[in-house]
Amino acid sequence: MSLILLIFFFAGFVKGVIGLGLPTLSMGLLTIIMPPAIAASLLIIPSLVTNLWQLIIGGKFLYLIKRFYLFIIAIFAGTIFSPLPSLSSTSVWVFPALGMVLIIYGLVAMFFPKSLISSKQEKWLSPLIGYITGAITAATGVFVIPAVPYLQSLNLNKNELVQTLGLAFTVSTVALATQLTLDDKSEPINYYLSTIALIPAIVGMYVGQYCRNLISEKIFRCCFFLGLIGLGSSMLFK
């Protein structure tokens, strides 16, 4: 139990510093000590609450809903109707796939420069990226690929990007909770333990937000993504 709380504190701390990473880091560490489906169920409440918090901070909620409604619908559809094996599957594919997702995300974030996407490209890319993100979410419990690199390539200012990430992560969390509930093979979601995990996640976010002003975010992001690559490599080749 204490190890689970420590993991959520650390994941919340990372989210507080760089604005993302709670579900990714939580899943990566929790799946070392428990099955992926159970790990995903534990992050439902912490992820939902912290992402809603991130979403409501800012004044462009309606604008972002109007701009990204196809993206949102596609995330939900991809999660519920994913062609990939679900988290509850006993296939050995699930665990190394999560490791691969962590490696890809770390490499993309570290080495690929941002490239702007035009409004014409956005119209057809948003539903495509949303569906792929949803499918990967259903299989791994991780929301970031390819949604985060895609959103970072759009012409969004800092506040819009943070709020849009909160929107995407909130929808992904709700969709994942729905998918786990509908999956007959999946264990029931432990909302009690998930709610308890919210406490260290929020404390971690507060601490991370405080530390953001004391350390170089650039250096921290570099260390964080290197850590993701190392964790993903361990999971992939274990």
Automatic annotation (TrEMBL):
Gene Ontology CC entries for this record: plasma membrane
Keywords, alphabetical: Cell membrane, Membrane, Transmembrane, Transmembrane helix, Transport
Membrane-spanning residues: 29-56, 68-87, 93-112, 124-148, 189-207, 219-237
Membrane topology: Multi-pass membrane protein
Primary location class: membrane
Keyword Ion transport included in the entry's annotation: no
Keyword Transmembrane tagged: yes
Protein name as annotated: Probable membrane transporter protein
Organism phylogeny: Bacteria, Pseudomonadati, Pseudomonadota, Gammaproteobacteria, Enterobacterales
